[in-house]
Amino acid sequence: MISRVKGTQDFLDLTLYDFIIDQARSHLAVYNFSHVETPIIEHLELFQRSLGEHTDVVSKEMFVIEPKGEASEVKPGEKICLRPEATASVARAFAENGVQTTPWKVFTYGPMFRYERPQKGRYRQFHQLSIEVIGSNSIAQDAQFIKMLDRFFHEKLKLNNYALLLNFIGCAQDRKAYVEKLQGFLNSPAAAQICGQCLVRKEHNVLRIFDCKTSLCQEIYKNAPLIADNMCEQCTSEWKQLQEQLSLLSVSYAYKPTLVRGLDYYNKTVFEFSSENLGAQNAFCGGGRYDQLVGQIGGREDQPSIGAAMGIERIMLLLEQNLDKLRIPQKPALQVIMPFAKEQQMLALLLADELHAAGITVETLLEGDSIKSMMKKANKLGAAHAIMLGEDEQQNRTVTVKNMITGEQVIIAQTELVGYLKK
Ligand code: AMP
Asked: Is residue 206 part of a domain?
């Protein structure tokens, strides 16, 4: 047997997935977001320029495709990849299509691809819902955006057991100065014993040192300079405003001074929603501000923006622990039509067609099974009624309808069936 590719999943029951998307659609409509779609394949360069060459995602986890089309179509060195996230794609779509109305408030969802080591909650093909506000400088937008996410998790998905971690990592200039300061600290005797991986991070992706799992490194970093203490006046004031506005909107959060997120394009506000109920991979949504991204990927000018991405698989894991609190829409009642013999199949087809046209959910048992096994099947399918068609029914233009819960049986005219089932 050919098995599925490592790190991918088959979803045979999408009830929870659909529930999350349906709830998100209605929630985001209230906040005036629209749905957009971008391609799953993009130029590798898009992510190299935006996420950053030295991030884990770009340096180790990209699924790159070398096109093998007609020679004339393939530019030398052109590389296409499967998208590892959607923010850069949405920013590209904004710039490429010359969207004029800002803030551009959009969401998109679908598969993302990262060549990671698969484990619970971590896949090579996974699904994200990505929400973006492109073209807004206002820090109040961040407060409203975070409140929107918090309300979604709390009120729409009925999640309670989670934390919102928040940090402010300054503007590009602050970050540049801070990176130098942090590298200075790491070069000092106080940090002589950091691990090999952190030595590499120090050169290429220094803000990520705080994610190191080594306890000695963590001990050393307790004395490292913090970004919040090294920000310009404007960023210091915006950080204060953000905290005040979140309090005004009754959003509970925990300040995590070492939260930086994995991708290079973030600045100022960064946040993560995480839940202990998820185990090691505990973050289910992350985001922040990305003021330079549109400019970085070739837009005419920078567009200050904020966005977030949530991992649908991880939210599904959380909802599975919470099913009793959710109002997941019930499937419509199922009616099962049973022709007792081949001679009744034409009639079964006609009756089923009439019920389908009336919007009634019907399964027609056409495999020529015995009455006993058809009854078993109807039970297994969770049928509301079994509609039996034997010789008598055919001759008398009737049907025998069995209520599968009470066991009660009635004989009614075929012309009355739709009315009877709709009752
Ligand atoms: P990121 O795009 O890395 O900021 O991730 C945003 C969210 O996507 C995370 O909080 C996770 O919930 C989810 N996520 C990221 N990578 C994976 C993965 N490999 N498998 C499943 N979910 C993921």
From this structure: no
